[in-house]
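On clarity, I found the account of how folds are encoded harder to follow than it need be. For illustration, here is how one protein appears when written out as sequence plus structure tokens.
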Amino acid sequence: MSYVRSAEAIADIAASPQALFDYLDDQASLGLHMQEPSMMMLGGRMSYAFDDARGRAVGFVIRMQGKMLGLVLSVEEIVTEWERPRRKAWETRGDRTFW
């Protein structure tokens, strides 16, 4: 499936599918760079809030919130597919008029 705002890359990685999936499925670690002020965010940063499953099961939620140039940014995602180590999919919930 192709989306208007998407990117794709293909690479060989010397790790098992389980190890790679587990690394990429750890949203707190994967998004660590966004939790510090950065030039990309014009000095802003994001923080994460997780449910009990930490976003690692169908139906569970990942929330991100932050500020950039005085604007409050808030994103809530719900996991729609989770098949370790093959696939994870999620949807963004709420009003997306700021995109």
About this structure: The beta strands are 45-50, 61-68, 71-83, 87-93. The radius of gyration is 15 Å.
